[in-house]
User: What shape does this take?
Amino acid sequence: MSPSSTPDANYISSDQNSHSRQTSSGIGLFPAVPYQPPSIPLSMVSSSNFGGPCAHQNRTARYWSRCFEVQDDGQLQSSKNTSELDLIRDTGESLQQAMTRFRPYSLSACKLSITSSNERTELSGIWIRGPTRDVVLTVSHFNKDTKTTATAKNTTAEVFTTLTGDLGSGSPIKCELFHDYNDPGGNKDFAIFITCSGEEPRSPAQAIIPATILDNGTSLSGTVMAFGYNSQPATAIENHPDPGIHDCSCINCWRGSANLVCQKLNENMALPHPRILAPGLRVISVGEWMPHQNSRKVCHTVTGWYGISGAGMYTKDGQGNLRLVALFQGGIFRDPDSDKNEAVIIPSDVLRHVNKAGVA
Assistant: This one.
């Protein structure tokens, strides 16, 4: 988890065999279920346990990794301390120059408000440039009627590409489901949306080209960055432990998740404030790819929370080119990896469907 490694140390290889993965009670997914009253805790929204916040190490101490707001011009909102983003700068490059270079990736991030058989979910996603229309790639673990197959007729999404990702700052693009792998938590946890008939077929902001995607990436190491939208952790309810208490173990609770990280690392760190998520805004968050004792899982230390599911995860390939290799999937609650989160690697079959969806 050390952020002392340089971007040049990153490495990706490609393998024709995509990672397989099994969902367990120690894995949690990160969809956001909107329109819940703030008095209802996230533990009532999902039965899964998960992590979320991640801690990094510098030369003197550990610190909680932050998410940084990305404006509609691709630049960061001014911040007093962006030192943890030094990892993403090339030699001799300023952070402003780096963010200009990342503009196609940051502004291709989008927020989806999905309605499937009257079930509603908010996820992050990525606009991808097709030959005649752009498509949106996200994860498949949105709420849906398990008795009904999700189709274009019963599953639609309002897709936002603005800073705040909502009606307050721009009109959404109306999209419909093109293909749902329907594998929540699995190694094909993907869904593809296309613009509805009569809608502008191109992203109103940016879209990455398919050549940016490296399918079946393996041997992931070094620095990884994600662009997406976190939601606000739920307000504590009556009888919830005082925020100052360090041993909160509530299911799916922001403080409980952070406390488990502290226990795993044997660190007496102050629990992080939810503001490190920059909730409700487009963000960049940086971490490290981490080894896992089970090679079928892909771990990382990028901080995230509900709503970040589907965010694009980028890293450099062996030639130093930035590539999209995975989507943010969820977090890990159970030892030995409760200080990490999880990603799902993009397989060749998903890339083929993305290319097919881009042709009207």
The mean pLDDT is 82. The two ends are 43 Å apart (CA to CA). Helices lie at 95-101, 103-106, 254-265, 348-357. The first helix runs from residue 95 to 101.
